[in-house]
């Protein structure tokens, strides 16, 4: 997820540069901000797509050898 955030920041900086050199009403400025918006939408989609883990699941992921995380087979 951090990769997409880094890309959003890069594209945001690029959009600011394009808009400052070509003007806020230029077509390239609008395209640059559309790219930022699309990346933000994808990041949001990825966050909602991933199932949320409860606190025990998160703990067991971080500490798989903990007694609370043992799995017994019948």
Spatial extent as radius of gyration = 21 Å
Major sheet summary line? none
SSE sequence, one letter per element: HHH
Spans of at least 5 consecutive residues with low confidence: none
**Residue share in β-strands:** under 5%
| Total beta-strand segments | 0
User: Structural class of the helix and strand makeup?
Assistant: mainly alpha
Helix content: over 70%
User: What does the average pLDDT come to?
Assistant: 90
Principal-axis shape: rod-shaped
Q: Count the helices. How many?
A: 3
**Terminal-residue CA separation:** 38 Å
Tally of individual domains: 1
Structure summarized in a few sentences:
This protein has three helices and no strands. By secondary structure, it is mainly alpha-helical.
What does this structure look like?
The chain contains 3 helices and no strands. The longest helix has 23 residues, at 27-49. It is mostly helical and 74 residues long. It has one domain (2-69). Helix 1 runs antiparallel to helix 2. The radius of gyration is 21 Å and the shape is rod-shaped. The mean pLDDT is 90.
Question: What keyword list fits this structure?
Answer:
74 residues
Topology:
Layout: H1 2-22, H2 27-49, H3 55-62
Helix pairs in contact: 1-2
């Amino acid at each position: 997820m951090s990769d997409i955030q880094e890309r959003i920041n890069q594209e945001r900086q690029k959009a600011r540069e394009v808009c400052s050199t070509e003007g806020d009403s230029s077509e390239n400025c609008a395209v640059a901000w559309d790219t930022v918006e699309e990346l933000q939408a994808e990041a949001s989609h990825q966050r909602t797509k991933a199932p949320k883990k409860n606190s025990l699941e998160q703990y067991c992921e971080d500490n798989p050898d903990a007694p609370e995380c043992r799995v017994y087979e019948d």
